[in-house]
Write a structure and sequence with these properties.
The protein is α+β, with helices and mostly antiparallel strands and about 180 residues long. Helix content is about 25%, strand content about 25%. The longest helix is centred in the C-terminal third of the chain and has 24 residues, at about 145-170.
Length: about 180
Amino acid sequence: MTGIIDEKGFRLNVGIIIAGQDGRVFWGRRVGNRDAWQFPQGGMMPGETPEETLFRELEEEVGLRPEHVEIVASTEGWLTYRLPRRFLRRPRNRPHCIGQRQKWFLLRLTAEDEAIDLFASESPEFKAWRWVNYWYPIRKVVHFKRGVYARALRELAPALKGERAEQERKPMSPGDNPNA
């Protein structure tokens, strides 16, 4: 599969932030790199919309299907980062990619954690995962992605806070545990 590279050399891509019920986010440890952690992401294929890419990548990378999540928000525009020179490749007969241009999505996991299956595809992207504080990834992702992570998380945070505030405003049923 070949992704789409725009006229400036950026690969069109989606970034995926999966929030649990408590507001913490999915943080995945990449296969092949000793200690590289990141959010799921993946390149758009010709003819795909960002939402179609989102759901394809979500299933390929973490085994989640559309019925396991709900889209809370997405970034208004596209966010870009450049790859450091040492990561640049010049493939034959294909456009040269200098970085990623990403549309970011914030999702709420509506299924149980057990629905996450890192080995759902034949070539897994992640070998482990955990829930982390919403802002933790900015400090821990590889240096050249930090700016995009910060911008995406800042832009999407109000949507998550608004959703959590809305949940807190819902009246409790007599059997609800207020400390749960």
